[in-house]
C-alpha cells in the first residue's frame, strides 16, 4: 500500500490530491504496529488421554436387559450388536474406535431406557386406571 501511495504522490501534480495522499500516508500505521494490534491466535493444546482397554465400557449387560424389558427394541438391539463389536475392537487393540463406539452405545442406551421407562409408566397407569374403574363400576 505504501508503494501505491508513493506512486500516486509522485505521479500527480494536483496539490489537493497530494495533500490528501500525504495526510493518508502520515496517519497510516506501519506494518509492524498493525501486526502487533491483531489478536493473537492461540492454538488449543490437545489433551491426549491414554486409552486402557479396561476403561472402555461395552455396556453388554445393560443392552441385554434393555432388549428384554424395553418395548422400544430397535435401540437396545443395535446397542447389543455394537457392544459385541466393542469387545472385538478391544481384542484387536483398536481402542480409539472402541471408545467412540462405546460413547455411542451409551447414548443409545440412555435414550432407549428413558423411552422404555415412559412406556412402562404408561402401562402401569393404564392398568391402574382400569383396575380402579372396575372397582367403581361394581
TrEMBL record:
Cellular localisation: Membrane
Primary location group: membrane
GO CC annotation: membrane
Family note: Belongs to the CD225/Dispanin family.
Protein name stated in the entry: Interferon-induced transmembrane protein
Transmembrane segments annotated in the record for this chain: 59-81, 108-136
Pfam families linked to this entry: CD225
Keywords of this entry: Membrane, Transmembrane, Transmembrane helix
